Predict the structure of tRNA-2-methylthio-N(6)-dimethylallyladenosine synthase.
Amino acid sequence: MNRINILDSQNFTNQEYYVDLIKAENDRFETLTGKKKSYLITTFGCQMNEHDSENLSGIMQDMGYIEADSQEEADIIVYNTCAVRENAEDRFFGNIGALKNLKKQNPDKILATCGCMMQQDEVVDEILAKYRHVDLIFGTHNIYKFPELLYTYISQEDKKTVSDVWKIDGDVIEGLPSIRRYDFKSFVNIMYGCNNFCTYCIVPYTRGRERSRLPKDIIKEIELLAKSGVKEITLLGQNVNSYGNNFEEKYTFPMLLKDIDKIDGIQRVRFMTSHPKDISIELIDSFVELNKLCESLHLPVQSGSNSILQKMNRNYTRQDYLKKIEAIKSKVPDIALTTDIIVGFPGETDQDFKDTLDLVKQVEYDLAFTFLYSPRPGTKAAVMTDQVPEEVKKERFNQLLETVNEIAARKNKAYLGKIEEVLVEGLSKNNDQILSGRNRKNKLINFAGDKSKIGQIVNVKITATKSFSLDGVEVD
Ligand code: 5AD
Ligand code: SF4
């Protein structure tokens, strides 16, 4: 774990008053009991949420809390939620329902819920009506206000639920503390929100309109990360290609990449997510020109059928997409391509689905994240009348998965015998004698080695390949 504070914070400073008050209270508790108060955050959803949780951890630790090992132990339990698909929502309600007893046994335990789901009125209403053991509710725009909200809750006599969800976009908040999961790699937000309103997607409603962070703030954060030993950064935004659109002076995403490439100590730069409609020649050229930019691109296609793409409001055709893929492959032939695909969007016919399968075969993705279409209340697609029956969706989903996995396995076979540069991330999930890490193309690679290599970049010769990972041995 590593922490970072961006020093010239403007906006977080007014929270420091509450941070100090709570910290003093926690210090007093520690003097009396010899114990520190603790917190545990459970995060659902995307990297954006994970990064928000890193900020929340930083805030918690500033207030004197330490991370707990379990919910039973934790004084504050936080659920950072995702609203993109229904199953994440169901899991969330299941989880907080199960905490009712824990709260009954220990009424001093504080249960907080935040993130995208809280931006939906129906969700907050349901929590307030049926999950009354939740103490604190806040949204995606006011995470930085957590100290004030917590203080408001703690200082009440009758411990009523404190709920504060902002409907309007927040400003871009600089200066949040952050506790990162890894010492050697980090996410960096470059923009918030989304203006695209794809008809299936809840994100524009939960994360608001596009706002870009200033280049100087991003560069300063990355310089600090590099000084603290970070080698790899992943730039985050819902649509990084429209970075800077709200600036008066022209400063584009490729320009940002160029400036980041100059930062000493950073060895790898990744980014996500790109919208296919906005991929520019300049961006494609960045892969050729910039040494640190890794040869992997996540380019969500969502569907291979023009009529579905139109109903999704994606603003590109299958032909536009394939043209961009060709342009990328011709300039960066060994690039690893990944994508997101939704199966069973309203009105999807057998032919539409076949078009998707056909596109997948044509592009030959290294990996594709496949999703069953899930109607999100409040989006345009949710009220479309031609919803696809569940069994049809599932059958198509399985067929797609089979195709995707077959291609992924075939693409991975090409690595056999090659020597790959691996940034070692930790022990393998399945075997603690094995190290695991990623090459520049973001392939997961497992090999036997010493724990001391974690955080280093080593050469690994690939000796076996699977659909989702490669095995190898370390070489000089
Ligand atoms: N149903 C299914 N998948 C969805 N995604 C976004 N909204 C939905 C939805 N309503 C998928 C898209 C997106 C990814 C992050 O989640 O493929 O790219
Ligand atoms: Fe959702 Fe589309 Fe915005 Fe991506 S680009 S966050 S899918 S609305």
Observations:
- The chain has three domains: 9-164, 185-414, 418-474.
- Confidence is low (pLDDT under 50) at residues 1-10.
